[in-house]
Amino acid sequence: MRHDALGAAPAAALAYRLADSVTETAQREAGGVRVGILGAGQLGQMLALAGIPLGMRFTFFSPTQSESAEAVGDVVIGEYDDAAALRSFASSVDVVTYEFENVSSDAVTEIEQVCPVWPPRAALVTSQDRGLEKQQFEQLGIPVAPYRLVGSLADLETAVRDVGMPGILKTRRFGYDGKGQTRIAARSEAEAAWNALGPAPLVYEGLVEFERELSVIAVRSRDGTTHCYPVAENRHRDGILRTSLAPADHLTDAKRHQAEGYARALLGAFGYVGVFAIEMFDTAAGLIVNEMAPRVHNSGHWTIEGAETSQFENHVRAVCGLPLGDCAPVGYSAMFNLIGQHPDSARVLAVPDVHLHLYGKSERAGRKLGHVTVRSRSREDLQRHAEALRAIPSIV
Ligand code: AMP
Predict the structure, then answer these.
(1) Ligand 1 pocket, 305 CB below 6 A?
(2) Residue 37 Cβ < 6 Å to ligand 1
(3) Is residue 126 part of a domain?
(4) How many angstroms separate the alpha carbon of residue 204 from the centre of ligand 1?
(5) What is the pLDDT of residues 353-363, one digit of tens each?
């Protein structure tokens, strides 16, 4: 289903701003609620797969064609700085959300003239800048790694002296999956690091000695009801998430409460609606928050089978003004990303307790092509089946 030409705006579009629940208005009309999604990757695909059974229909806005999105909805091709295209897209749907955080805030402002956009723009803008993000965390008393903002080589030299080494220099904007960052272990490396990433706005932060990486995913509805999923333990390689285990093993109640408290504080501060994730380092001295994502998150894919209500369903419920579902875990889950190469599906599916998700993308080094979740009744079963899965080539 492709729509290169953009449709005309329905006259009633603005009325949806006034409705408490977009579903109230839209469900009276044929075809159910239309959810617009900025971006057309696998997160959009999984949002649609969760919303379609609830009577929702999906339209994606993306600069390029996407096989992931085409399988589950209409795709409108347009540039994120094309105001007319954005408005036309917005007037063909009841509510808009986004599946990645590099959407420009101007695009969101444009769409807001026509229909509601959730999560709120403030959360998007903050998540786009590691500097703003850290300042927001600090304002709420959320611990972060020691850091300094860097705008010049002189700033970097001062930052390295103040924060110490080793450390990581990161671009403040447009970094993802470990891209746009470089480690500094000696003062002599500062200049090369600056030349590699500057003159963009940067942040230098101390290297945290962590025991493991954790994330917490939370969801907030329009009436402020907030639920948290169990904390997940995440393993990365080359800056890319490989595996998530949930619920995280051996997590103290104190750390769980801390993680949930951080998520709740941020959601409240933003007046947030939708699913939200924070990534943390688990250290001997407590949790340190690394970053936030104002969207469904890769470390929450296990919730499709491993929780009463998936992160994807809860996100579309929240943005459409519907009650949230239970975030309680169902058994024990391990999620494995499929990166670069597809595995042999028959071998994967022969492993007990396994659920395979392929996003319809072609193979390319470093590309997330799908994921596999093992969801078992006990940790022992989980371990056994996860080991069987790991023996298959191209699975981590
Ligand atoms: P990020 O792009 O900030 O999510 O970083 C990608 C990965 O790099 C993280 O998941 C960590 O494994 C690692 N990393 C980032 N920042 C730090 C830090 N300050 N200390 C230690 N490891 C880090």
Answers:
(1) no
(2) no
(3) no
(4) 12
(5) 999 999 999 99
